[in-house]
Amino acid sequence: MSEAPFGVGVVGTGMAAKPHALALRDLSDRIAVRGVYSRTAERRAAFCAEHGFAEAASIEALANDPDVRAVIVITPPNQRAELVERFAKAGKDILMEKPVERTSEAARAIVETCEKAGVQLGIVFQHRFRQASQVLAKLVSSGDLGAIGLARASVPWWREQSYYDEPGRGTYERDGGGVLISQAIHTLDLMLSITGPVAEVQAVAGTTPFHTMEAEDFVAGGLRFANGAMGSVMATVSAFPGEAESITLDCEKGAAHLQSGTLTVHWRDGRTETFGEAADGTGGGADPMAFPFDWHRDLIADFVDAVEVGRPPAVTGRDALKVHDLIDALVASSRERRAVEINNRD
């Protein structure tokens, strides 16, 4: 490990930047924020003043700074490709907010850009860093729960119409879609990281009367996993006032229910065990940022560790392509009113 502070740049100061800022402040003993850039000078100045960070005059200033070893990209997905190209060319490792891009094809292009440049690409799927999530992953990978027979993912969230009144939000041009790619993607990624890939889906998706927006605010689908398990997903931002997302796995030796930060396991021998603790918030209600920053802190720390020792981060860009393919399949299934197979090429 290097004794000097690990230098990072930050691009983007919108709503999603807050937990990153809090996490970076908490990690200030080992990470130095060399500069923060946003296209809006007033927002950039206010953000830096609030969090005690230095401003960056331009993207080039961050790319050319030899003390910037990695860049955290927190922009909307339609602004990613050009930024990744520039930073990868400059040899900067990149930690980027989800989704990778708006479509699977564009996401693959970004992953390949980083691979060709020889830089690390990590994606912010912080739900994997919850203690209860990690316990569940270990129980499955170790075989303690036995084979999975049924997997159910539920994201019953709520967003006010004012959330979608922001220009571009909930559109294909800026966000790449609605509830799947912007909200449920976290739960779907976590599910896949534990269950393995989905082979086939059949779904219905649409927009409820509660929102005026271009993309979907509701989806429900049946899943057939590559390992033979069956499953389902339901995701919406129309369930007032919003409840915590959950993943339930029915396995040979017990049933595991992960809801937000708490895991409850009902073993078939009659035991019941609980792991983790209830989170202060999950972002499932009217305030999208009502959740702790601890998961971001641990994810960023893992990414820095990975760069310093030369290993892949816990969530790589190529890992993230799996959830992009699942989202594409769910949308295509609804649009074409048929079952859709997933290639799982990565």
Report on this model:
The chain is of the alpha/beta class. It has 2 domains: 6-126 and 296-316, NAD(P)-binding Rossmann-like Domain (Rossmann fold), CATH 3.40.50.720; 128-285 and 322-341, Dihydrodipicolinate Reductase, domain 2. The protein has helices spanning 17-26, 41-51, 59-63, 80-89, 104-117, 131-141, 161-164, 179-195, 294-309, 317-336, and strands spanning 6-11, 31-37, 70-73, 93-97, 121-124, 148-156, 198-206, 218-225, 230-236, 246-251, 254-259, 262-267, 272-276, 340-341. A hairpin with a 2-residue loop joins strand 10 (246-251) and strand 11 (254-259).
Briefly note the structural class of the backbone. alpha/beta
* Biggest beta sheet attributes: 9 strands, mixed
CATH-scheme architecture of the largest domain: 2-Layer Sandwich
Number of structural domains: 2
The strand count comes to 14
What order do the SSEs take from the amino end to the carboxyl end, as H and E? EHEHHEHEHEHEHHEEEEEEEHHE
Q: Radius of gyration in whole Å, from Cα?
A: 20 Å
